[in-house]
């Protein structure tokens, strides 16, 4: 079901719910059952929306990561190639939980002539924080 269809179903439920409760009450269905059904439907739609949001965010992150990797592959000797939209490739890898690959990227970046020491220190500190979190120390 796409976003427009999901929104249409939610709008229809919001419009018809009071009518369904009234008709159900006439046939002996308690209001609490109607409210529980509505709560279950709302929970289902909220969960669906959250999952779609997370999948879209993961796809965007993966696309940016692929673009950064392609950029580094095209220009391996350029420090600027390690940045996509102002974010370093190693920082993207750390955010996605790929510590080993991030450490390798930081090492390659450190070997470049144009890499600044402040950037390297910030990346190494981020890597150290990720390692501590993994071990449960921080």
What does this 3D model show about the protein?
This protein is mostly helical. The protein has 2 domains: about 1-55; about 75-138, no CATH class. It is about 80% helix and about 5% strand. The protein has 5 helices and 2 strands. α3 (about 90-95) packs antiparallel against α4 and α4 (about 100-110) packs antiparallel against α5 (about 115-135). The radius of gyration is 25 Å and the shape is elongated.
SSE topology sketch:
Layout: H1 3-26, H2 31-74, E1 83-84, E2 87-88, H3 89-95, H4 99-111, H5 117-135
Antiparallel strand pairs: 1-2
Helix pairs in contact: 1-2, 3-4, 4-5
Descriptive tags:
single chain; 138 residues; mainly alpha; 2 domains; two-stranded antiparallel sheet; 5 helices; 2 strands; elongated
Into which percent range does the helicity of residues fall?
Answer: over 70%
User: In terms of quaternary structure, what is this?
Assistant: single chain
Inertia-based shape: elongated
Poorly predicted regions are: none
Count of DSSP-assigned helices: 5
Strand composition percent: under 5%
Note the main sheet. Answer: 2 strands, antiparallel
The total tally of domains equals: 2
N- and C-termini, Cα separation: 41 Å
Short précis:
The protein has helices spanning 3-26, 31-74, 89-95, 99-111, 117-135; strands spanning 83-84, 87-88. By secondary structure, it is mostly helical.
